[in-house]
Design goal:
heterodimer, A: mainly alpha, Four Helix Bundle (Hemerythrin (Met), subunit A), 6 helices, B: mainly alpha, Helix Hairpins, 3 helices, about 75% helix
Chain lengths: ~170, ~110
């Protein structure tokens, strides 16, 4: 049992370091193609967290939808525009610093506010629990949430029509 | 594992997304930073659903399943948002031959 807890801790810290490091690289990479590749690493880290929390369906869907479909879309657009590090617009150094300071201040405030929140110290389930399995999620999705599910298909249709209408002009 | 670890991880991811969106001028990279923020929120929703399940799972076996379905719907909306957003960026590139977001200040004048 103790061994399993330690392995879980090690996995959590490894996946967190992977996710945060590659997210920082997304924001800092000069070349937009490198940014997309680092974003794929970020999504793999987040999928690893989902699988660590035994939300297996969401882990796989995150990989297929984000790392598969959305990132291919980003890569296609970047290649279509022929962007590279030379054509990257450069921002004022002080504005960059202001962005980092603003993000850091927000992080400071949120950590200070949530440090002693009501949920502090509450335990959560890792590697057990069956609510994330596809059988239970599918049952809930097609009984309690069937109307939002159908509405989301209409949303997809309208997004497709919108993308074609905007891109065609 | 206490749930704060996931809260702090999600806060850090969200703030990296905000700092990236503020400091870059490339519209595509700003868009990617927004995706990072969406994913931070998804991660936190799953963590809270597991916390809720641990507390109420004995009485209600499907407690916390709503949180994971919300994440599913957020992914659906994000996919639709990306397709329309990238179409807008391509249209902007065709019109001004640049994806610098500082060109998008016509509403100011």
């Amino acid at each position: 049992m103790i061994d399993r807890m330690q392995i879980t801790d090690i996995l959590f810290y490894f996946l967190s370091a992977l996710t945060l490091g590659s997210a920082i690289m997304v924001a800092l990479a000069r070349n937009p193609v490198h940014s997309v590749l680092w974003l794929i690493v970020t999504f793999f880290g987040i999928s690893g967290h989902y699988i660590l929390m035994n939300a297996q369906f969401l882990g796989i869907v995150n990989l297929i939808v984000y790392a598969g479909a959305i990132m291919v879309l980003f890569l296609f657009v970047i290649m279509l525009m022929n962007l590279n590090a030379d054509s990257e617009p450069q921002k004022n150094k002080w504005l960059k610093l202001a962005g980092i300071v603003a993000g850091g201040c927000l992080m400071l405030v949120m950590v200070a506010a949530l440090k002693d929140a009501e949920t502090a110290g509450k335990e959560m389930q890792l590697y057990t629990g069956d609510i994330g399995l596809i059988k239970n999620l599918g049952k809930a999705l097609f009984t309690d949430y069937v109307v939002p599910f159908e509405i989301s298909s209409i949303l997809f249709l309208s997004a497709m029509v919108g993308a074609v209408a905007i891109g065609k002009k | 594992m206490p749930v704060e670890r996931y809260i702090f991880l999600a806060i850090a991811l969200f703030c990296i997304g905000i700092a990236g969106a503020l400091m870059r001028r490339n519209a595509i990279i700003v868009f990617m930073c927004i995706e990072i923020m969406l994913n931070a929120v998804n991660l936190l929703l799953v963590a809270f659903s597991k916390m809720h399940h641990l507390q109420h799972g004995a009485t209600n076996p499907s407690a916390g399943i709503d949180g994971q379905l919300f994440v599913f719907f957020i992914m659906v909306v994000a996919a639709a948002e990306v397709s329309v957003g990238l179409a807008i960026i391509v249209m902007m590139y065709r019109n001004v031959h640049s994806i610098d977001i500082n060109f998008l200040n016509r509403l100011k004048h």
